[in-house]
Design a protein that fits this description.
mainly alpha
Length: 296
């Protein structure tokens, strides 16, 4: 729903703008420093807390950019800090779904460097945030992007994590739904057509479904979008990889509608849609629960 909270103080708003400029320049550590100044100036400002959380979590990509060498423990620490800030943002803005989206992403990224028991615990936590994000902010493009990502990753969740979650938490697990992922990504694109990451993930989903012309159109449109942060930078690289794969695809190797898992996997590798660099791997959310229905 719409927020009734006052805007951030002018000085904090200036810091948030400065942090966003650092993000556009791919200076993630610089963005963290600026956003933490905003948090120090306004500890209950949800916007400052959320921006800082995002930057801390995005710092896991510094190794992919060749800026820092990060260990799994380093990446875990980055997302643990992000989760602290996300939770504070959710408490400061209980009516908003965006802090829940940030919590969900940080938990998913933390799960990537965690053992299976921890993955199962994070799954329970992230499921609640994913549902809350869309329920509280149904017109948020980022909330729909998140739910699309959720559906995509549910179809790829390791069986051992499903089993642990069922045993430890009594969760009813269901397979993911690629059609619902496509619908949520399409909704995100409709809400924010200039946001690069939405078009890349919609293109990825369409390619997997064998809708190659539509996928190519979305990926080409993505290349014309602004690169607003490190996620978009890496997603743009994904788009170029996928477009190259789609151009080289031949009818004999097309796989639309195939039920053969090996054929699907081979075709995903061929077209570059199985989760390459950037969000395709980095924003993975490894859990499997019944999700809200796809948008109409």
């Amino acid at each position: 729903g719409a927020s009734t909270r006052p805007p951030p103080p002018r000085a904090v708003a200036a810091l948030l703008a400065a942090g966003a400029a650092r993000e556009r320049a791919m200076d993630v550590r610089g963005a963290i420093a600026v956003y933490e100044r905003a948090v120090a100036a306004a500890p209950a400002c949800a916007e400052a807390l959320g921006a800082a959380a995002k930057a801390w979590s995005d710092a896991i990509y510094l190794d992919e950019l060749g800026v820092e060498a990060l260990t799994p423990a380093d990446k875990a620490a980055l997302n643990e800090r992000a989760l602290v800030l996300c939770r504070a943002a959710a408490a400061a803005a209980p009516e908003s779904g965006l802090p829940h989206a940030a919590c969900c992403v940080a938990a998913g990224r933390l799960a990537l460097v965690s053992d299976n028991r921890t993955k199962a615990r994070l799954a329970v936590q992230a499921r609640a945030d994913a549902v809350a994000s869309v329920a509280k902010s149904p017109d948020s493009d980022l909330a729909h992007h998140l739910m699309g990502r959720w559906h995509w990753e549910m179809a790829r969740t390791p069986g051992v994590v499903r089993a642990l979650a069922r045993v430890l938490y009594g969760a009813a697990l269901e397979p993911g739904c690629h059609e619902a992922a496509t619908a949520h990504y399409a909704k995100a694109v409709a809400l924010a057509p200039a946001r690069l990451i939405h078009r890349v993930e919609l293109g990825r989903s369409l390619a997997r479904a064998g809708r190659y012309e539509e996928a190519t159109s979305q990926l080409n449109a993505a290349l014309a979008c602004e690169v607003e942060d490190v996620n978009a930078l890496l997603q743009r690289a994904d788009a170029e990889i996928m477009l190259s794969g789609l151009r080289s695809r031949t009818p004999a190797r097309a796989w639309a509608g195939s039920d053969d898992a090996s054929n699907v996997a081979a075709a995903e590798r061929e077209a570059g849609v199985g989760g390459a660099a950037g969000e395709g791997g980095g924003e993975s959310l490894r859990w499997a629960w019944p999700a809200p229905p796809a948008p109409a």
